[in-house]
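User: quick one, fold this
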Amino acid sequence: MRTALVIGTGLIGTSAALALAARGVHVHLRDHDPAQARTAAARGAGTDQEPDGPVDLAVVAVPPAHVATTLAEAIRSGTARAYLDVASVKGGPRRELEALGCDLSRYLGTHPMAGRERSGPMAAGADLFEGRPWVLTPTHETDTEVLNLALELVAHCRAVPVVMDADAHDRAVALVSHTPQLLSSLVAARLQDADETAVRLCGQGVRDVTRIAASDPRMWIDILSANPGPVADILAAVAADLDGTVRALRALESADEAKRGEGAEGIEDVLRRGNAGRSRVPGKHGAAPAVYETVTVLIGDQPGELARIFADAGRAGVNIEDVRIEHATGQQAGLIQLMVEPGAVAGLAATLRDRGWSVRQ
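Assistant:
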């Protein structure tokens, strides 16, 4: 691949362009908002000048509702040797292209499983896709050259290619991406009118659950509008679980001991099913989730403190497998939770104490 055209210079399009440009590909940038394309170009993602002739690869990075029409226009004008999109839904755009009579041999639907709560070219980064799955949905019509160019793009972005059927992909992302977004927003919405004293009690749990609720609503309306059926199916199942959980909680209020027992069983059932589901989420390096122990340390909110505690962990010969920080309300300090292998806990705690850290276990 020597040349590429990225159509749509938001977070995903600009990130892909930055990665390609860093690998020596001459990238052209196009956007319905020329100022956004100029911003991406100023960040080193390529040039906002139109190509003189067909490029090797055209990457369409526009909202799902506009993917098919944008691709159809590019294909009919002979913009590139190969075309792909990076929308978060795959079945719908392909069927729309079929209805428009496009040659699908030069097209491949793809979806990089990466993103941020912020959007636009200023949020982009060449490392956005590194180590992340990048779904490819080839069919028997897909030309081998198109697939090879798509794989080259994935390699330049240092992502991990995953081949799936388009409709299977849409059902999968409904479960692991689209539904979690809505559930996060539903929980966060409860905080909008909550009493200030309650909000001040927010800990790491509510921060974890509501993190993605900060996402751009306009972007998510586009995504959900392109995949409403599978998401609605999953939410209907969640609603049934919620209904059962509400009944179980009401039973726990009963004066009848038998009803309280039934309520406790209902709550235990959903919690245990949650344990089982959580255990299937891939852990480090895609392996089965490991069981780590936590060493909790009080840390000040000053420059260099994180670097210092990681350096001290290195002196102990301990690898930090994961980390979380819980900020203390109204204080210039917080608690850092260092997740490590169980056998490393005692040595890490001792070293950190020797180095002057306040270890809380």
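User: anything notable?
Assistant: The CA atoms of residues 300 and 333 lie 4 Å apart.
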